[in-house]
Write a structure and sequence with these properties.
Layout (H helix, E strand, L loop, with lengths): L36 H6 L5 E3 L2 E3 L4 E6 L6 E6 L5 E5 L5 H10 L3 E6 L5 H4 L2 H8 L3 E4 L11 E3 L4 E4 L2 E7 L8 E5 L3 E5 L2 E2 L2 E2 L10 H11 L8 E4 L5 E2 H7 L1 H6 L8 E5 L2 E10 L5 E7 L5 E5 L3 E3 L1
This protein binds fe (ii) ion.
Length: about 300
């Protein structure tokens, strides 16, 4: 493996900030998480009201994370005995199937954030087991195993009494989708992680400018109190990432950029930021010297020059 660039001391750290959102869901299992009204109020959660009665005071979520890829599958339902959707299928199926059985849930759809193998690995297994449609953005549905239902930007998907809204956020891939649950939570795929962001050199990537727009002008237009459920590792909130994520801070102009000469993918480049990635490695924001092209790339592809 190529050496990583920079020294530990130079790597931008995710700042220690107090989360404004709900407690993050940790671990890897089948537990359903039910938030109390006081927790929701404390987190500034927005309650939906119908006929003056408060409804939807909690949501149910199960998570399965792949032990090596660290990719998440998120199971979302509105209540035991109701409908459920699965966002991405890269996590082991066991915990998801157990949760479906335990809570007597009907899996109605698989929703794909994007086509990378660590997010779609079990698509066809879920089709065989549950006969459910597999939904993805039109730009990459041909790359999605079992993909049969196109979702457009803004299209809504009902999950029992819940509504998920598909949001097109290209950059990491051309048809990358986020899924927003009202004003409460957003599944961000490989675009925004806790403390990091997606790269712009993965298969079917578009450009840094798309990724920047998708994060800064699409995801961060959502209410900051929203919890984020990323495609890899732990959850966070938009508020926490707005204040603490090194890439977001750099793009807001809050922190100084570096200007170190490096090799990136074997080409001369300028290192603007190096920060911890979700997997314990680093991720770098670079500008290539010849083309002035900006990119977010794995630290393993960047060496000092
Ligand atoms: Fe990806």
């Amino acid at each position: 493996m190529a050496p990583r660039s920079g020294s530990g001391a130079q790597i931008a750290q995710t700042r220690q900030c107090t989360s404004l959102g709900l407690p993050p869901i940790g671990g890897n299992g089948t537990s359903f998480y039910k938030y109390s009204k006081s927790q929701l109020r404390k987190a500034g959660e927005i309650f939906r009201k119908a006929s003056e009665a408060v409804i939807l005071t909690y949501m149910l979520v199960a998570r399965s994370m792949h032990p090596t890829w660290l990719s998440n599958s998120w199971l979302l339902a509105d209540r035991p005995g109701g409908e459920a959707v699965l966002i991405d299928t890269g996590g082991p199926m066991g915990p998801i199937e157990q949760a479906l059985g335990e809570h007597k849930l009907q899996l109605t759809r698989v929703l794909c954030t994007h086509h990378h193998y660590d997010h779609v690995d079990h698509n066809e297994d879920y089709i065989r087991a549950y006969g459910c449609p597999v939904c993805a953005h039109a730009a990459e549905i041909a790359l999605i195993p079992g993909g049969d239902t196109k979702l457009a930007d803004g299209e809504e998907v009902a999950v029992g009494s819940l509504t998920l809204r598909a949001i097109h956020i290209p950059g990491h891939t051309s048809g990358q989708l986020a899924f927003a649950l009202d004003d409460r939570a957003v599944f961000t795929g490989d675009t925004l992680f806790r403390g990091s962001v997606g790269g712009t050199r993965a298969p079917d990537h578009t450009h840094f400018e798309d990724l920047h727009h998708s994060i800064m002008e699409v995801l961060f237009e959502l209410p900051k109190e929203m919890t984020i459920y990323p495609g890899h590792m732990e959850s966070s909130t938009l508020a926490t990432e707005w204040e603490c994520n090194p890439f977001v801070r750099a793009w807001r102009g809050l922190d100084d950029r570096r200007h170190d000469p490096v090799w990136a993918f074997g080409e001369p480049a300028e290192l603007l930021l190096e920060a911890r990635d979700y997997d314990g490695g680093t991720k770098c924001w670079v500008r290539f010297e010849e083309s002035s092209r900006l990119d977010v790339v794995p630290g393993s592809r960047v060496q000092p020059r």
